[in-house]
Design goal:
Number of strands: 8
Distance between the termini: 30 Å
Structural class: alpha/beta
CATH topology of the largest domain: Rossmann fold
Radius of gyration: 22 Å
Bound molecules: adenosine-5'-triphosphate, magnesium ion
Strand content: 5-15%
Strand order of the largest sheet: 2-3-4-1-5
Largest sheet: 5 strands, parallel
Number of helices: 14
Shape: globular
Number of domains: 2
CATH architecture of the largest domain: 3-Layer(aba) Sandwich
């Protein structure tokens, strides 16, 4: 028998017991160990949702990167600083003049060592007045100056009551080429927790809560097969069924428009060659046969293999022991 959890307060949340326990232990032991944590995973796996759950209703400084266009340099840091200054203004008095570039709206010139030091040391100062637990959501979209500052901060913050928790997409990152190297360095300096799709029982609990009925094993298998356990896609598919049974892709009417938009956006920025190969791959079978693909597209097999590698890097195909597959939920 399946137990459907009754959830009466707050947004729906299922599973992730291990990750919550890890975050909770890091929050209780602030000031020991690494000052930077990373929650990594593909889009829609639930990084932000997990973090909100772990932090509860406490108003921690929360910054979000701006991925859609030109944001001022150090934008996430500016958001955190403004929030911290409201909490403990006296900690920022000493370096007020140098911090004015960020606090009072001007654009900071990137690479300014003195500015970075003032930010880092003021936050240490603030943490001695009140422990600092801060978030930067979507660090993969941060500008290079933000990443450089955080790399410099890591050793200065170690030992102080500071915990910076960041979320990071592992695929579809669109990280600017000049920030790639800094992001990799920051990742090395952080404790990383990689999220994957929800398990069978977690998908069952989520789908049952969303559908307000008990979703049976066969439906959970269909959901797992189509979504890889990504909660964003589980939500979309359950909502699109409007009370009817959840079917495998072969018997369903395809993806709901909300999810189609996500996928079109994800595939849209790839080159035309990659899109062609993916489109054909999705039509042929779940498992990709590079030779068959090359034949059907009349392309040399090396060209198809190159594209397959790119698509694996983008998280649109996955490499498993038995071969290369269209990654759920994107293409099936
Ligand atoms: N553990 C969970 N229980 C229930 N719903 C969840 C869970 N995790 C995520 N969700 C739901 O899935 C959707 C996607 O979650 P979220 O926005 O946290 O993903 P993300 O990994 O931060 O994605 P992105 O990389 O796009 O920021 C949200 O609607 C969220 O409510
Ligand atoms: Mg998120």
């Amino acid at each position: 028998m399946i137990v459907v959890l009754m959830q009466t307060q707050g947004p729906l949340f299922v599973g992730r017991a291990q990750e919550l326990a890890w975050l909770s232990s890091r929050l209780s032991n602030i000031g020991t160990g690494n000052s930077m944590l990373m929650l990594s995973g593909p889009p829609g796996v639930g990084k932000t949702c997990l973090l909100r759950k772990a932090l509860g209703s406490h108003p921690h400084p929360w910054a979000k990167t701006w991925e859609f266009g030109e944001a001022p340099g150090l934008w996430p840091i500016t958001q955190l600083l403004r929030s911290l200054v409201r909490r403990t203004p006296q900690a920022f008095e000493k370096d007020r003049a140098i911090l004015a570039a960020l606090l009072e709206g001007g654009q900071a010139p990137p690479g300014e060592f003195a500015l970075y030091q003032a930010v880092i040391q003021s936050i240490v100062q603030a943490s001695w007045e009140q422990p600092v637990v801060a978030v930067i959501d979507d660090i993969h979209a941060a500008d290079r100056s933000t990443l450089e500052l955080l790399i410099m901060a890591e050793s200065a913050w170690r030992g102080a009551p500071i915990l910076l928790i960041m979320t990071r997409r592992t695929v579809d990152t669109r990280t600017s080429p000049e920030a790639q190297h800094c992001l990799a360095r920051l990742l090395q300096l952080s404790d990383d927790c990689v999220l994957s799709g929800l398990s069978h029982s977690e998908v069952q609990a989520l789908a049952s809560l969303l559908a307000s009925r008990t979703v049976d094993d066969e439906e959970v298998h269909a959901l797992l097969r189509r979504t890889g356990g990504l909660p964003l896609f589980v939500e979309g598919l359950v909502h699109s069924t409007r009370g009817s049974r959840i079917l495998s892709s072969r018997n369903s009417r395809g993806l709901p428009p909300s999810l189609r938009t996500v996928i079109v956006d994800r595939i849209g920025h790839l080159s035309a060659d990659v899109r062609d190969v993916l489109r054909r791959a999705a039509l042929l079978r779940d498992q990709i046969d590079p030779a068959l693909l090359a034949q059907s597209l009349r392309l040399p097999s090396t060209a198809v293999e190159n594209v397959i590698w790119q698509a694996i890097g983008e998280g649109l195909l996955s490499q498993e022991e038995s071969g290369v597959f269209c990654d759920p939920p994107t293409l099936r």
